Amino acid sequence: MDLQELINISRIPLPYSQKVIDLFRNPKNQGKMKNPTVIAVAGNPACGDMITFYMKINDQEVIEKITFESYGCAANIATASIVTEMVNGLNLKDTWKELSWKKVVEEVGGLPNVKSHCGILAVGAVKRGIRKYYQQKGLVPNWIPRGLTSEEKQALEEEELAEKLSKK
After folding, report:
1. What is the pLDDT of residue 2?
2. How many domains, in total, are found in the chain?
3. Rounded CA gap, 99 and 97, in Å?
């Protein structure tokens, strides 16, 4: 495939669901939070997709409030937005166990295959935030695996790949 063919393909509009378009145009819970309990970041600005979640977690380990900032495509913004809606008010254990990238993709009405990584990135960021919350407290609940989840690994791999590519 030559460069012109690649450029032409990149101009083809992606088949986003109406919900993705609506969430992209009117994202829920967007913006920086003052005094969050934990901040979780995933992605890399060099690749174009980056999410920062701000979580306020109360003493009962419930996500009282979650907001996000996103730098990326429509799918990135939509998945970050829907994740905030899905986990707001949940306790950390339920969030950890119930939140999956497949559920996120389903909630936004599906994503083109090339954009599924946006759901993975959003879930990975939230799980990294939960892990970070407990690390700050010096705790590791038995329901958090010692190793990274697939979503956490994917988020980390995207960051590492983007970093390598930005150095070339």
Report:
1. 44
2. 1
3. 6
